[in-house]
Each structure stands twice: as C-alpha cells, then as structure tokens.
Design a protein that fits this description.
single chain; about 130 residues; alpha/beta; four-stranded mixed beta sheet; 8 strands; Glyas_Bleomycin-R_OHBP_Dase; Anthracycline_SecMetBiosynth; VOC family protein
C-alpha cells in the first residue's frame, strides 16, 4: 500500500488553489485554477496534497452537501529553514497564526490557515542537542 495524497474538500476552489500554489509555493499538476480537482507537490518527496471541489464530492456522498465548519484537517509540511520560509510566504500573503516557535527540543513549527480554515503546520526538524 502507498499513500497517494491527502485530499481536501473545499468550497472556494480558486482561493485554495492560489494559497497552495502561490503562497505556499507547491507545484500544481495540471494548472486547473478553477477546479474541480488539482494535485500539488512539494519540490522533493512523493507525497502530495490535492484539492477537490466539495460540491463535486457531495454528488457522490450526499452528506458532504452542507457547509463544513471547524477544523477538519491539519496539513503538515517540512521545510529546511522555517524562519526564511515564513518570511517568504508572509510576503506572498500568508498570515501566521502561531510561531515560528519551538514545539519540542527536536522541532520548531509555525501554523497558518488556508482560505477554507484548514490548518497548515510548517515544521523544521532540528538535530538532536547534547
């Protein structure tokens, strides 16, 4: 078994597309800015994040037809230099809601939200300290 992607069901597809492509800097697979589906990949690794228009999935699963509320997911991205990456994405319109700050002695994190309210955690892994 292989994890293919984490898919987020979104209501405002264009805003979420812009956030993942332009603000976070992930590479879109096809350039479908209006949806109803797009997969995004980081520069390294094989995991991906996909967006799917919520109304399209509601045609399959009727229970998804209502408006989603609350925190429904946490997308985690690892970066090499948290402070620099946070400065770059802030310049592109990201609003950090927490950090950068230590989470443990081995990791620093920052948090922000996408246009649908999904929480994105940025992680910088630190070397073990003696």
């Amino acid at each position: 078994m292989e994890l293919a992607q984490v898919r987020l069901l979104v209501s405002d597809f264009p805003a979420c597309y812009r956030f993942y492509a332009e603000v976070l800097g992930l590479k879109p697979q096809s350039g479908a800015t209006e949806g109803p589906y797009e997969k995004f990949s980081p520069a390294t690794g094989s995991a991906g994040i996909a967006l799917q228009d919520r109304s399209m999935m509601a045609e399959v699963l009727n229970e998804l037809g209502g408006t989603a509320t609350g925190h429904r997911s946490l997308v985690v991205l690892r970066v090499d230099d948290l402070d620099t990456y946070c400065e770059q994405i802030a310049a592109r319109g990201a609003e950090l809601v927490h950090g950068p700050a230590p989470m443990t002695d081995r990791m620093r994190v920052a948090h922000l939200k996408d246009p649908e309210g999904n929480v994105v955690e940025l992680q910088e892994w630190l070397l073990l300290r003696n």
